[in-house]
Amino acid sequence: MKRSPAATTLRWLGRVLVALILLFVLLPGVVVAISAFNDRAILAFPPQAWSLRWFWRAFSYTDFGKGFWNGLTVTVWASSIALMVGSAFAYAIHRYKFALRDLLEGILLSPLIIPHYTIGLGVLILASQTNTARGFPLVIFAHVVMVLPFVMRSAYISLQNLDTRLELAASSLGATPLRILFTVTIPLLLPGLLSGWLFAAILSFNEFTATLFVSSQATQTLPVAMYNYVREFADPTLAALSVIYIVVTAALLTIANSVLGLGKILNVDAH
Amino acid sequence: MLMRTDRTTANRFAAGSDKVRPAVQLDGVTKRFGGSVALHEAWLKIQPSEFMTLLGPSGCGKTTLLNLVAGFLEADNGEIFIEGALVTETPAHMREIGIVFQNYALFPHMSVANNIAYGLKTRGIDKREIGRRVEEALALVKLSGFADRKPRQLSGGQQQRVALARALVIKPKVLLLDEPFSALDKNLRGSMQVELKQIQRELGVTTIFVTHDQGEALSMSDRIAVMSAGRIRQIAAPDDIYRRPADRFVASFVGDANILSGRIVERQGDSAIVAIGDVRVNLAAAPIAALSIGDAVDVFVRPEHLTVTAQGASNALRGTVATQVFQGDHVDLYIDAPGIAAERILLRAPGIAMLSSCPAGVEVGLKIDSDDIVAFPPGAAP
Amino acid sequence: MNKRPFLGWFVSPAGLVAVGLIAALLAVFQYSVRAYVPGSLDVGDFTLQNFAAMLRPLYAFAFGNTVLLCFETAVFTLLLAYPLAYALVRTNSSALRSFILIVSVTPLFLGEVVRTYSWMIVLGNNGFLNTLLIKLGLLERPVQMMFTAGGVVAALVHVTMPIMVIMLAAALSHIDRNYEKAAESLGAGPVRIFFTITLPLSMPGIVAGFSTAFAWTFSAFATPQLIGGGRVSTVSTLIYQLGFSSFNFPFAASLSLIGLALSLAVIALLKKAASPLERMAGST
User: The pTM is what?
Assistant: First the structure.
């Protein structure tokens, strides 16, 4: 497209603006990375000497290791349960009309706008009222509630894109509803369901506010352990951990982008 | 904007008449996308008030050419002129061109009136004048009273009228139409074509129309530029394109054609005599000038230029009816003629008499009944 | 034959989760109208004292402060995310596309704690920004950035950027480019095209992004707690203090109930205010 000089100037201004915004987004990550290699125990800039010792401390600090495994347990359970419950429900609301359908849908989507501390506090009070221990099931339940809307949404979108004539074809060929479900519907929904699961898993692994309320010392997840660490210590161990976190996440996303096309998953691809 | 001009005729736009300054001129315009050439050295002169159609299959470069004229793409080589002024470097918003898009691209957040007024507002025209011209444009497309509707409240045909009004109200130097009928259903398409053509004639606006539909092209255009693989193959009036296609591609893309195998037997100046089996036909020598007496040629014969005659009649080809297809006002006969044509010959017979007289399996004689026969050097691809 | 196969099987687990969620919310509601028994986790009799206490300036201020913080965050996030989303959708270079996508989306998957921690290092008195500005000679002594509302907003903007970018990019990518071409052919320059075509047509994304940023910020706890350091009080930090420092769960419950109501009200208000805009964008 040909442009007037004014348009060219605008384009350059736009580029500078975008570069500055990207800098803003990147800045904390870069700063954390620099301080992670700082030898001194006080967070100060610029580092005077370099060292890897905070990485060793991050690995050897037991709360982090425990938090990681706790988090993984909660994440795998919560996102898998949410996947099954959420996609089954999405199937039901996509295909059928039934009593309380809209009400149920509204309730299950509400965690998108209910503050997480309200959910955390509610589950905590409910547990104390029913004398339920603050164990894994409690944390997992809270997480299921919070990630369910995301799984429902991605399952629903996949269902909308599913050509129902394929199911009719299978039915005309003599397949029972159960056989159709497992041989046609679920295989065709699989990519959407998997990306929904992945999204739910990442959100669950990082959830902090509600987990802080419902977890105990024995069930605390990595974000909670990190939060507690920040309140107690001021050394760069958490910076080192953050660097690992950032590197692993960015690597996973880069892989996801090249394999699955992140733009497609996030629905931001131009038409 | 409602001034009338004389009814335009194809003759006025005969190629090469340099008396009038062309409304649009492309001088050797080339456009590449990455490594592939989308448009190869296009030379084109469009006369004022002319309705020029770019016809070709998808990917032939017709939309690229349109986008280059509009200014949405930048030419790699060559120059573009509009009304004599060089516009190759002019941004699209300063070219004063009206466009009707395939999906109309009516601004969904604006009313019909605001859609039409958009181009007038960018020109800083005063409010009362805008109101008057919007009314006028709505009347032109027979949509008075629809000013306050939103585009989504209109039918496909109405949306197209609004798009046309929006493009015309700015008194564009050229009107570009990018497959405007493809989104309409078949019945509506015909009446919209008639209406569009009438408005175009009334206003005398120079028009470039892009389509892959040969029927639209033949019925609406003053001249047609047939395109294929990034090149303009032929520029001529519709009847010339149909009767005297310049090459194999044009002959097979525009209209149906049977390809018969012949042999050159004689040359007389501009014409040549070609033998197809026992039948001799006289045709233009130019397309096969490079060949010599005795060489094989492919002869292109339209289905309606063949007639059935008694088997064994003199000066007739022989064939066997393979299938007949009833088409309402005519009958399509598919005829096997091994040795003459590699594929089944299609013959279009008016009326329904052939249904009973030529059942499948019957041997018939075929007469070539027209002067509009062309031959090209043999080749696999059209 | 059953016209609705699996209906019961598919709906009842979701129903169970919904019942659990409602029970949890009812529990909050029930606690909010009970008296606080100091030094005990048990609660006393029915009372409306908790809600009456909220009229005290300290709490009223926290509510006002939270809403203000959320608005500032949402506005700044929108202003920063729009150019990024625009560049993401409109750039022709696929390398740049991937880069912007990864850079703007990665923070979404890092969680609030990691991101907040990195801002602590950026904003601290011996942190990156102060050190840099002093080295450059722009400052003589460190400026207090930690424990200020400005610092909290900066970090919150960073936290809500990814989701805003995704929502805006989704809206922008669904705008037919022919609208802009049509406007251009009608004589509109780039600035006019942006303000009359692109911006109004991306309105649904703006509304969705703004409300989401607002709701997330309202819900944020780690950022105001760690960067505000107790000096920037929000609904979330108050609830945590009441619950886990003074074990006044009834008051925490009533606060979080009001917090929920307030956030719902503001989002409903946003939706209402935005509906003419959305209608303008033609998405009914």
Answer: 0.82
